[in-house]
Amino acid sequence: MVHDEVHTPTPPSERRAWLVALALCLLGVGVLAAVLGGVVGVSPKAPATAPPTVLVGAVTPTAASPSEAAQRSGRGTTAGPYADARHESAGSASPAVASVGAVVAHTPGGREDVAASAPGPEAHISTAWEAGFYPIYAEAQRVFGVNWLLLASIHMQETAFSTAPSTYHGLNFAGCCGGPMQFNVTNGPVSTWDLVKNAYRFGVRPAMYNHRTAYHPSIYDDYDSIMAASWLLYSDGAGSALEDSAWWAAYDYYGHDAYGVEYADEVLARAIGWSQHGFCINCGVQPALAQAVYNAYGAPVMATYEPTTVAGAGHAHRVRRRQ
After folding, report:
1. CA gap 37, 40 in Å, rounded
2. H-type alpha helices, 178-277
């Protein structure tokens, strides 16, 4: 009797399946490592490597530079909007007027000493550090229309781009102001900070930037502080132009006294220089440009102050910040 040969099927080898599974596992681990390492999947809000686009190269101002808008508002006149302050004595009941009468930098004259006194940051600012602020500057400019060079110049003037030792804790030596943009949190009854602290709500917070706090708003958060400064400058008339409107906004930002004139001159001269020659993190203010800004915008306001000299006045300007 012939029996049919029974063929028992041979089970397929599992080696190939295991090799495929291992390969997929290794691929998944590689992708995860790349994402965590930032090779792929980088957030579109990551800090830019280049500064925002400069809107326009501002011209060097002349004595005839005050705009028609400034003339209409009274801010282009020789007297300026605070001319009445010169008639008040240093003993006035108004603290702001008293400070105007008591603190004067020098009589209207050459401005080379002002520019030379603050040639640039005390410490070298790295490109990588400054790049962390670019998305904030860009968002502030987009939301409020304030030229980012003016904003960056004030940031430089206040804390050397947030590198001053006390930027992120406590208040300044006067016990009034703090944070990257040195907001006054003690004046009032509504402090300057309280007036504009919610500016961050108008924009989109970058996913990554240099110093993000756990709670908002905070004067120590770079985004919160810079957005608030932009709103304040916008409220004081600053826009995209680096002209008299920007000068007055910077003057208002500091405070209305002779040191405020110096402050506004330096801030605007720096911003104009950047617009003409490119954003330069560690460059100082050009003396000739500071002189031109002073002649066009600062001198008429400085002329409204009494030519009084106060001992130690060279160190008094920080006390008046944001009042």
Report:
1. 8
2. 192-196, 222-235, 244-254, 258-277
Identify which of 220, 47, 203, 210 has the alpha carbon closest to the alpha carbon of residue 134. 47
Q: Where along the chain do its domains lie?
A: 12-42, 68-320
Q: What is the pLDDT of residues 264-292, one digit of tens each?
A: 999 999 999 999 999 999 999 999 999 99
**C-alpha span between 140 and 202 (Å, rounded):** 9
pLDDT of 50 > 50? The answer is yes
DSSP state of 178: E
The rounded distance, in Å, linking the Cα atoms of 238 and 250 is 8
**Nearest Cα to 249, choosing from 177, 279, 239?**
239
CB atoms within 10 A of CB 168: 19
Give residue 212's identity as a one-letter amino acid code. R
What are the tokens at 90? Answer: 């240093």
Classified as helix, coil or strand, 144 is helix
Q: What is the pLDDT of residues 97-114, one digit of tens each?
A: 222 222 222 222 333 333
- Cα 163 to Cα 47, 130, 142, 267, 306, distances in angstroms: 18, 10, 25, 18, 36
List all residues 6 or more positions away from 173 whose beta carbon is below 8 Å from its beta carbon: 318
